[in-house]
Specification:
Blueprint: H1 5-15, H2 21-60, E1 66-70, H3 78-86, E2 91-105, E3 110-118, H4 120-123, E4 133-136, E5 147-151, H5 152-158, E6 165-173, E7 181-194, H6 199-202, E8 205-209, H7 210-217, E9 225-230, H8 236-246, E10 253-257, H9 258-261, H10 263-301, H11 303-311, H12 316-347, H13 349-360, H14 381-398, H15 400-407, H16 411-415
Parallel strand pairs: 3-8, 5-7
Antiparallel strand pairs: 1-9, 1-10, 2-3, 2-6, 2-9, 4-7, 5-8, 6-7
Amino acid sequence: MRKPLLVFIGLRYLQARTSNQYVSFVSLASVLGVMLGVAALIVVLSVMNGFENELRDRLLSMSSHATVSSSTGGIRDWPALRDELAATEGIVAVAPYIELEAMLSTGGELGGAILTGIEPEAESQLTSVSSHMVSGSYEALQSGSGRLLLGVILARQLGVVTGDKITVLVPQRSTTVSGGFTSVTRSFEVAGLFEMGLQDHDAIRALMHIDDAAELAGMVGTVAGLRIRVADLFAAPRVMQRWQANSANAGNLKVSDWTIENASYFRAVRIEKIMMALLLSLIIGVAAFNIVASLVMVVTEKRAGIAILRTLGCSRQTIIGIFVFQGTVIGWLGCLCGIALGVYLSLNVSTLAPLLESAFGFQFMPGDVYYLTSLPAELHWSDVAGTSVVVLVITVLATFYPALRAAGVEPSEVLRYE
């Protein structure tokens, strides 16, 4: 099969590099640099994807995909609203809740907490608290039982364990004194401890039955809002916008979803992901400069050959194509090897990380610093494709200067003394 002239000569120049060991070394370094840069970028993006998914799961393990609440203090006709939401396409579960701030006391210790009143049966369809119980039982929360669940860090701060008694103090606005406050105090038994793996939950959250919370908050017969779970997590904003547009009861209600409530967390993860990608791209940039250097040396070495090709009728565009082809082969070879290595490492992070920890005697995720004890990784083929396209474009651009320099060789000047 006949090859195009620029491909034929480009391959000959690549094969002839073995005669110049230094040029061969620089070319090999270019391939290795591109390979390591691509592999590192794919692995880091996969780990960041894993962190983002883990963070999302932990944040939503105790909250809902969306909420509907009252801007005036409470929802009285909430059963009808719950039925309306449950009948909306895309919504799979709805549960009422009451949330209030409180002080918890054990006599010697005092701490602030956010009390959340729930219906255990309905809540089990929304969150995964029951699967994160450290002790006790999620089903122990019954109406009028005087029991609650505490986050493990909050329980540790208060010095309590399952079965202990604590005093709950909730402030209420006084109806007899203008602008004044009173407080409601009640004793509760710690029915269990949960650990969600996030400071925002484990250090400040306490759960109780919604009837007990309503009594403490002075909201008997009303709820603060409704928590909603949708079939498709990422469709929650669209589902709630559609319900708002079609519901006659949505005018006086505040609608929110997980993308709004946790926007700062995911914005921070996205910024970290972008910064890590930019920093690791420097490796690819260094490899691209190596490609430039190796091609410049080839141009210098092959000046006579280029001049002969020009006298035989090769155009400047053909000379440019020869060296662009050479540099592209080097860059694409490194890119393909990097993709293979990066995909393999990303898919086997959970196996390789413990081996590295045992071999070098350190931990990637120390348990006393992070809630995660292993590196999460999730490979997105869109990241692989994006990385590949960027690397291929960079390596192609890196070939233009040497190629233009080769095309600028004047046959008369070079062959005068040959």
